[in-house]
Amino acid sequence: MSIEIISILLLFVSFFGLLTYGVPVAYSIGISTTLTILLNIAALPGITTVAQRMTTGIDSFALLAIPFFVLAGELMNRGGIANRLIKFAKSMVGSLPGGLAYVNILAAMLFGAISGSAVAAASAIGSVMTDRMEDEGFDRPFSAAINITSSTTGLLIPPSNVLIVYALASGGAASVAALFVAGYLPGILVGIALMIVAAVLSRKQNIKQGERVRASQLWTDFRKAFFSLLMLVIIVGGIVKGVFTATEAAAVAVLYASILGFSYRTITSKDLPAILLNSAKTTAIVMFLICTSMAMSWLFSFEGIPQLMTGFLLETVSSPVLIFLLINITLLIVGTFMDMTPAILIFTPIFLPVVTELGMHPVHFGIIMVLNLCIGLCTPPVGTILFVGAGVAKTSVTKVIRPLLPFLVAMIVVLFLITFFEDISLCLPNWFGL
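RESULT FIELD:
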């Protein structure tokens, strides 16, 4: 057996073995990468290589956007934005039968898009909506299921940190601006699919119709939410029109969120240390994941794993449709036990050469990959949003699983629609010339 095959086996066996043993993902990636490089000590200068690749992996101007967007999301979360969006969403769809289910989904889409964080959307919207939905006749596990799945839409609808990470992992094949614009229709389509499921299940539970809102109240709630919604237009519009880069847009988002928070008097100078500390902790976790994942991605390239995978799939599977199905199924399985950021950084270099060889656009594949991993965030055993949503709803994960299944099926249906109808992802970037 050649040293290359032994290296690849050591890399994957040690990585998945450490994950199974309960070692955190970032440490599993770093340790397995280091062990494999030590095996190749004749060709590589050992641990020094790991340190160098971790450092150069995060030496990217584009990654500066992540701490800024994290801080902007934290400011939005503390700044009372969620309540304004919930009131606006309720004025729009709350009068329909089971309307609070639609309110939850629409508010999560709006807040997730503004904050760029599924965790922030799940905690902010869920903490407000769960009790209200229970008063209207929804049981808590069902409310949690709606909140969990709808919170992930903010990872597709820009601004989104994971789309920035994918742009980095693609090696420049997909621009941040094109990915941001491409995420709108898929994100909205997921939200509509979740609303359809919620409508069917609400009818079965005989949820009563909410009170009709007058046009004057709708206008009032819209005015209160207007400046929060305007952030999306400023950030994404500025990137698309070339006014500023994604990194500069993230800094603008921090400034805008700060102005809103202080204007609404929901943030004071005393709140800033806690906000900055939480943002720093989140950023440190994300950046450590990125730097270890970038070291592993470099090792993939050194070992020729992307080329091996491309050759294997193209030689053994004749149908492109079957290859796309296999990649989707693989990513769905990966999403159940691995967090989104390392999954994107590890599997993009493996699968992107395969799909581009078959004619798939890198931007299109980025949206497919993110939606795949969004589904993984909602599933055990590692689904972050699953545990956050269940915790906020004050119910157990086991009780949430059953009502969660129809919503996951809806997300998977949308995933395959997006996979085989590329215009859903690419029509807006093509229209804007990105």
